[in-house]
Amino acid sequence: MPFTVGQQFPTGVEFTHIPIQFNDLSLINPLKCDTTAKLNVDNLLQQLSTSDKPLLVVVSVPGAFTPTCTERHIPGYLSNLSKLTDKKVGAIIVLACNDAFVVNAWGKTLVKAYVKDVENLPQIYFASDGGFSGQFELAADRGGVFRNKRYATLVDSRDKTVKYFGVETESGVHVSGVENILDAKL
């Protein structure tokens, strides 16, 4: 069953990712393969809960390097990082069904294209879903390929509750875009 507003975000969630270094955007190389790491969401929520930016955004896409995901969905988030920071978003996790290396190369490509200022950014992770979305009916077989649905959720780390959840039911970005997160009532 998908998330609902007011529900606790699941515990014990881990994703695989490759950290992207944001301290110097000119050094980001999408073709450089680094070592994978585990992203423990419980630890991230705990860290955010004691900060002045306690909100976590989890945004999911059907696939890295796909048209809507690359041209419309995630660029909106990366182009509005200062507004997300103003809303008290401390971290963003971008999920795709691809492996961590593909997601990392895609993330680096998008960061180089859309992130212009590295001051006061939320933490940004591009992570491989690893089956998480499928556990909550947020992934489906799309022509022989199991892909995530396009969705976004906003979690308050202080009480670990979902404050916003939008899953797309048709093609495009209507309820999972950055505008929906920015307009979400807390």
* Share of β-strand residues: 25-35%
Strand count, sense and closure of the main sheet?
A: 7 strands, mixed
H-E string: EEHEHHEHEHEEEEH
Give the overall silhouette. Answer: globular
Mean pLDDT: 95
Provide a descriptive summary of the structure in words.
This protein starts with 13 loop residues before the first strand and ends with a helix. 40% of the residues are buried. The chain is globular. Helix content is 28%, strand content 26%. The chain contains six helices and nine strands. Helix 2 crosses helix 4 (100-114). A seven-stranded mixed β-sheet has the order 2-1-5-4-3-8-9. The chain has a two-stranded antiparallel sheet with strand order 6-7. The chain has helices spanning 41-49, 67-79, 81-86, 100-114, 132-135, 178-183, and strands at residues 14-17, 37-40, 55-60, 89-96, 123-128, 139-142, 145-148, 151-156, 161-167. Strand 8 and strand 9 (161-167) form a beta hairpin. With 186 residues, the chain is of the alpha+beta class. The mean pLDDT is 95. One of its GO terms (cellular component) is peroxisome. GO terms for molecular function: thioredoxin peroxidase activity. It comes from [Candida] subhashii.
How is the topology of this model organized?
Layout: E1 14-17, E2 37-40, H1 41-49, E3 55-60, H2 67-79, H3 81-86, E4 89-96, H4 100-114, E5 123-128, H5 132-135, E6 139-142, E7 145-148, E8 151-156, E9 161-167, H6 178-183
Parallel strand pairs: 3-4, 4-5
Antiparallel strand pairs: 1-2, 1-5, 3-8, 6-7, 8-9
Helix pairs in contact: 2-4
